[in-house]
């Protein structure tokens, strides 16, 4: 009977094989490690060739970000015109917009830059304060409404008693 480590290694190997097949299908030039944090959203299946059949210029592959997931918006990940965006995990904020592979006179390079920055405790703390203030406001409004209804009911009861005494 295989132990837990053997089962984990076998599952990881199977998952990596599936990811490699997906990469080959998409025509991307990413390694298996890249695929786990790179999402392909483009519908363009160009294989880095122009309509004339010549190979298009390409940028160097973008290294994986320390935090977040790369999302290929346009292109295949390295061709000129490729646009890559970054999605940040919870409790992080995106700095920058997106990367784009562009062609200069004789070379290609990436323009733009993005990274995920952890939220400071104060930025996250502000949300907690807002929620707490909302709850306190809700409680105050609720108790004031109950007090108003109680006063109205008491006035109605006193009015009824006064009418009964006058008869």
UniProtKB/TrEMBL annotation:
Residues 1-25 are annotated as: Disordered. It comes from the Eukaryota. The chain crosses the membrane at residues 125-157. InterPro entries: SUSD3, Sushi/SCR/CCP_sf. Residues 8-20 have a biased composition (Basic residues). The keyword Transmembrane applies. SUPFAM superfamilies: Complement control module/SCR domain. This is Sushi domain-containing protein 3.
């Amino acid at each position: 009977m295989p132990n837990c480590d053997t089962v984990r290694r076998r599952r990881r190997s199977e998952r990596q094989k599936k990811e490699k097949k997906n990469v080959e299908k998409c025509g991307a030039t990413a390694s298996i490690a890249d695929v786990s944090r790179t999402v392909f959203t483009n519908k363009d299946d160009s294989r880095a060739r122009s309509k004339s059949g010549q190979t298009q210029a390409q940028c160097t592959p973008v290294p994986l970000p320390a935090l977040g997931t790369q999302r290929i918006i346009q292109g295949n990940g390295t061709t000129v015109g490729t646009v890559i965006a970054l999605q940040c995990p919870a409790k992080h904020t995106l700095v920058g917009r997106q990367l784009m592979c562009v062609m200069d006179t004789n070379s290609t390079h990436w323009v733009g830059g993005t990274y995920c920055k952890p939220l400071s405790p104060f930025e996250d703390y502000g949300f907690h304060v807002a929620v707490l203030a909302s709850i306190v406001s809700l409680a105050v409004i609720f108790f004031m409404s109950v007090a108003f209804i109680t006063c109205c009911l008491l006035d109605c009861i006193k009015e009824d008693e006064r009418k009964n005494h006058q008869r």
